[in-house]
Amino acid sequence: MNAFFIPAKIVTNYYTYSAMSSHLPLWFGQGAVFTIVLIVMAMQVPVRGMCCGKCKRGCSLGPLKCCESGKAWAEMATFLRKYHGYYIAFGVTSDWYYHPMESSLGHLSGILNDQLFFWQMIVMYTPVHRNKYWCIACEFAVTLHGPLVALNRGGAAGMFGFGFTIVFLVTG
Predict the structure, then answer these.
(1) What span, in angstroms and rounded, lies between the C-alpha atoms of 156 and 149?
(2) Residues near 13 by Cβ (< 8 Å), separated by ≥ 6?
(3) Cα–Cα distance between 39 and 90 in angstroms, integer?
(4) One-letter-per-residue 3-state SS of 151-165
(5) DSSP letters along 23-34, please?
């Protein structure tokens, strides 16, 4: 299906420049990707911790008491590992069809990001899907995409680059 619909979007975009962004609000595209990032981070809490290794195996961060013996985080991660594919497939597909295909660095990095996640969906049920280096590459791609989009729009590229990089480093 991906081998057919990805080129179909490229051909359609060449002739009509149609994308859902002309019909849907900006938060739709950003919300889909942001939720994917949150799901991936939450699935990794039992392995990496939530913040610099905290909450991996039981902790208390002062009044927060983020988890008692890690059970709540472990249950959440188990649930997300079992069902994350449904939302991520929806999120990546809607993000792919939300954005038009343009040759700016911001758009090209977003296309690369979507392609990495499409490949991640294609190799599900194989060892590649859980290869830690491949997964880190998929997670890291957004740290490049954010500042490139901001640069294209003349915005605060440093803020987006710094923010995504800090989230990546602190949770990883």
Answers:
(1) 10
(2) 19, 100, 101
(3) 13
(4) HHCCCCHHHHHHHHH
(5) TS-HHHHHHHHH
Query: Could you tell me the CA-to-CA distances from 74 to 40, 48, 71, 105, 152 in Å, in that order?
Result: 14, 12, 5, 38, 40
Tell me what pLDDT residue 146 has. Answer: 78
> 10: pLDDT confidence band, cut at 50, 70 and 90?
confident
Contacts of 117 (CB under 8 A, 6+ apart): 36, 88, 92, 138
Rounded mean pLDDT, 25-39: 84
Say if residue 47's pLDDT is above 80: no
What is the reported pTM? 0.76
- Rounded to whole angstroms, the Cα distance separating 87 from 79 reads 13
Strand partners, 54: 51
- Give the domain ranges of the chain: 22-98, 101-172
Length of the chain: 172
What gap in Å lies between CA 55 and CA 39, rounded to an integer? 16
Over residues 134-147, the pLDDT tens digits come to 888 888 888 888 78
